[in-house]
């Protein structure tokens, strides 16, 4: 009885307030559209600016369309004057080596911690946990001395070593994932006489694939976007990565906004392509990567 | 289990070699010492690389930072002078060094706005919405963009007679401040950029948390005639409260260590310098490594305290419902 009464009142309420319901729907989509405009307009105006000539850029409002949608002069200038080819080469080298290193070193460490009981295991875990709390920028004052002491200053290895060596989150992602793989899997292999190295290589690593995808995405985005480490440790122009080379646009080119805009678009396009191609993995990756 | 297998030595006497005993066992029994040493070394070999890197690039810097903070040293000179707590005293007594922490308040305020907006949009997107993936994608994408690119995008947006001024002009606003040149405005502008950059991550985290709330709760609420607002208030908010709390506290340590956006956009000019910018400049521009280390130690201590509070107040498991 009561349930029916309640549904009736609900229906009655729904019937009496179609205007309110419509208003709510309108507000919902209006706010979503507003949010999307805030997110997209800054990107769109920069894209427009990158296609304009200098005269167009300073003569019209930022929202005016470019005279020629296929004017790629600014892109050519950006690539040539900004040494962006070098920048992408350097970024790719650093990305490939540090991602490979992070995945191998992180998964091996996680394998050791999750599958063995050894002296110092708890201490090691604690050290990793504590290190995860230390924000990277704060310690650069002293890290700088370590990097120069090792002779890595002004080499790509400075960035590679720091990206690979200070990544603790990936170990956690691997650890979490390894907990979900039953030990019976590796034990069966051990009974067949496989060594631990072989088990790691042929069983654990392939099973970790989803975790590897997560680490590669989260870490890859972080490395591609990192500014301060290459800025501090690789000041040489030839060692510019995407971030630092873009940063240098501010200096020599003055404020040629049309060229800077082209530089920005060149930087953002790879991110956009990766995002569109791997959307689902990216959402999952960041949800998983951020909560632990 | 691996544990017992490595923990105990191989059976002293070869077991009656039944058919089930594999070849590996025979070997182990034959060479017990070498085998045992190797087995014991195995986990260390697997973890060695990670541990060496951890010590070299995290613990050596942290420990030496404490040491440097007691010195008067330019970072290059082999000679340095021990000044004890002198750097810390200087830090506390020179208000221009410590005062920059007030800048963090802007960013923390920004975090609150950002979380509220993320919560609102996450709630909307968790109900039935057309073009859901499109909206989610557009709102999230800024988070993935390179920080330098974001800094430059907003330098363009904020420049006098630029995008923002033109938009405000369309709305009839006459007086437009210098968004990055006016001391009373600059931190608001930079906080806005920070919100624009990080909002998307909060949105996706909240959405993920809402989706892990069991669907039957919403179904039951709908059957009882609960409005969307009631569902938001009584199911969504309590359901993801730990995630909200966690992000709020992360916002505190984030606000304390703001660096990239102001460094790229203003270099810390016009009163927009944050504590990290100041630390970095003290070390690498003014070559006062001792003082900078003291500043870094203070910041590290603050961040650790905040994290400690977080661990104490927010339970680890995020599933109160279900």
From TrEMBL, chain A:
According to the UniProt entry, the coiled-coil residues are: none
What Pfam family is a match for this entry?
Answer: BPD_transp_1
Q: Where is the ABC transmembrane type-1 domain?
A: 88-278
Q: Which PROSITE patterns match?
A: ABC_TM1 (PS50928)
- Gene3D superfamilies per the UniProt record, alphabetical: MetI-like
Species of origin reads Planobispora rosea
Q: Please provide, in alphabetical order, the Gene Ontology terms of the cellular component aspect for this entry.
A: plasma membrane
Q: How does it sit in the membrane?
A: Multi-pass membrane protein
Endoplasmic reticulum as a keyword of this entry, yes or no, is: no
Q: Which UniProt keywords apply?
A: Cell membrane, Membrane, Transmembrane, Transmembrane helix, Transport
Q: Where in the cell is it found?
A: Cell membrane
**Could you tell me what this protein is called?**
Sugar ABC transporter permease
Instruction: Give the top-rank taxon of the lineage listed in the UniProt record for this protein.
Output: Bacteria
CDD domains in alphabetical order: TM_PBP2
Task: Give GO terms for biological process.
Answer: transmembrane transport
From the record, give the transmembrane residue ranges. 29-51, 93-113, 125-145, 157-178, 199-224, 259-278
Name the predominant localization.
Answer: membrane
Spell out the SUPFAM superfamilies in the cross-references.
Answer: MetI-like
Protein family membership: Belongs to the binding-protein-dependent transport system permease family.
TrEMBL record, chain B:
Q: Which UniProt keywords apply?
A: Cell membrane, Membrane, Transmembrane, Transmembrane helix, Transport
What biological process terms from GO does the record include?
Answer: transmembrane transport
* Principal location listed in the UniProt entry: membrane
The lineage's top-level taxon is Bacteria
Q: What is the lineage of its organism?
A: Bacteria, Bacillati, Actinomycetota, Actinomycetes, Streptosporangiales
Q: What is this protein called?
A: ABC transporter permease
* Bilayer topology annotation: Multi-pass membrane protein
Region described as Disordered: 1-21
Outline the extent of the ABC transmembrane type-1 domain: 100-310
| Gene source species | Planobispora rosea
Q: Which InterPro entries match?
A: MetI-like, MetI-like_sf
> Where does the sequence pass through the membrane?
44-68, 105-127, 139-158, 195-218, 239-259, 289-309
**Cell compartments where the protein resides:** Cell membrane
Compositional bias (Low complexity) at which positions? Answer: 9-21
The family assignment reads: Belongs to the binding-protein-dependent transport system permease family.
* Cellular component aspect of the GO annotation: plasma membrane
